[in-house]
Amino acid sequence: MRVLRRTLGTLLFLGAAVSCAASPDADARPGDGRPAALAPYAQLLPAPASARAEGPGYAVGAGTVIRTGPGGDEEVRRVGELLADQLRAPSGLPLPVVDGAGGDGIRLRLDAGAEVTGVEGYRLEADPGGVTLTARTPAGLFHAGQTLRQLLPVAGPGTVPGGEITDAPRFAYRGAMLDIARHHFTAEQVKRYVDQLAQYKVNTLHLHLTDDQGWRIAIDSWPRLAEYGGGSEVGGGPGGYWTKDEYRDLVAYAGERYVDVVPEIDMPGHVNAAQASYAELNCDGKARERYTGIKVGFSSLCVGKERTYEFIDEVLGELADMTPGRYLHIGGDEAHSTPAADYAAFMDRAQQIVGRHGKTVVAWHQLATARPAPGAVLQYWGHDRTGAAEKAAVAAAAKAGHPLILSPADRLYLDMKYDLTTKPGLAWAGFVPVRRAYDWNPGTYLAAAGVPQSAVLGVEAPLWTETIATRADLEFMAFPRVLGLAELGWSQGPADWSEYSRRVAAQGPRLDAQDITYYRAPDVPWS
Ligand code: ACM
């Protein structure tokens, strides 16, 4: 692996060198104190598994078409149309999508026998005759298209430099989480985030739909959850909720970008909004007041009451019915008001219910202290000060076959402040500058605790919203740190901050062009 990585590094370096000779924007400027601009193949983020710049490239111009044949695969056609949309705005070109593989242009080639790795891998080849994207699946073609976007200028027509990329992800699960419970965000706002993430090959959106402060998803069999429990948020604002159609529409929109949605109903704690909506969900039969503060750990479903399990069954059943992805997330964190034995008994039944609805459980890693069901995935959110016993429980679960999603709070929690100047955000896990979010290895992160690399399903960057209420603040906290998540999830590594930070800087104009409100963090060498 080490040798391979070094080889890849050399290829990238050579690619940069070759492109430098061919590309006017890549001139080194010795003496002005700034690092030379990176050549296009060396700018890609996430970095591809291998890239080689060679020879003249393909000029995308007024006559360029996007070819999605042969065979007329409907999904490939859709991927082609989406790519055309994404390329039209910056290039100002018409870029019609046509059937048929022959001829020049941008060709999307679905080939079940292609020599690419896995379901998301792809190859990209560019020469004066055109650009060919090859993959075994439409998802691979989509990712190839996102790479192609980064090989073209931020604005105006341009030339895809000659060369070849062979690429595939390091981890199957590359996620971002958004908490729409503490503050309500609309489905349209979340679509924008999906677009921002999918271009960097993030393939999962975890939606934290419910918490003490608000219930954000309509459930037909328990209508007051959304209608009443949705009417609050942190700080006393009006809150809100998504109808089932809005949720389905978001899920479909994400799916077209090869982003799976993982919905979370957090339980048995973090349930005050439900307990305010229905008195029967409380052991004492009395409805709670709605809550707009930011304390945690005070609410618990009534573990001994059969009605609690009817509630979970109906809620998770409706959610499973409108979620095509394989996972349902049932929270399980910070259940400080649920005694340990009750917690374990409750999680046993909640996991069975998820299974009965045909889904796989995801839960925060506290489930490791109870009895994770076969196949359950644990999401680790500890940090440098997390105790050995807690890590040992996670390691035991990992060794017993439970896949782990890593979301270390002091690395990937996007609600942690960058530094002293950050206005939104919290700091209980410390500051998380851009470098800290990136400069670690998910494969070995919990190795000292005994977690084998093979247990790591992937990485996820959660964005909790106790202090985040606007699109601008969401983007400011996510960008550019979420690029680190994308890079760690996709690229083979190893982490090299100085090289990576230059690629982040190279994304600056692209983030600007997309009107993304990002932090021009001082540790990144922005031009
Ligand atoms: C969490 O941050 N309570 C998962």
From TrEMBL:
Ordered alphabetically, the record's keywords are: Glycosidase, Hydrolase, Signal
InterPro entries the UniProt entry points to: Beta_hexosaminidase_sua/sub, GH, Glyco_hydro_20_cat, Hex-like_dom2, HEX_bac_N
Specify whether Chloroplast is a keyword of the entry: no
Q: EC number(s) in its UniProt entry?
A: 3.2.1.52
What does the record give as the reaction this protein catalyses? Hydrolysis of terminal non-reducing N-acetyl-D-hexosamine residues in N-acetyl-beta-D-hexosaminides
Identify the enzyme class.
hydrolase
TM stretches of this protein: none
Q: Which Gene3D superfamilies match?
A: Chitobiase/beta-hexosaminidase domain 2-like (3.30.379.10), Glycosidases (3.20.20.80)
UniProt domain Glycoside hydrolase family 20 catalytic: residue ranges = 171-492
Q: Which Pfam families does its entry note? A: Glyco_hydro_20, Glyco_hydro_20b
CDD domains cross-referenced by the UniProt entry: GH20_SpHex_like
The record ties this protein, via PANTHER family, to: BETA-HEXOSAMINIDASE, BETA-N-ACETYLHEXOSAMINIDASE
> Could you say which protein family the record assigns here?
Belongs to the glycosyl hydrolase 20 family.
What protein does this entry describe? Answer: beta-N-acetylhexosaminidase
- Species source reads Streptomyces flavotricini
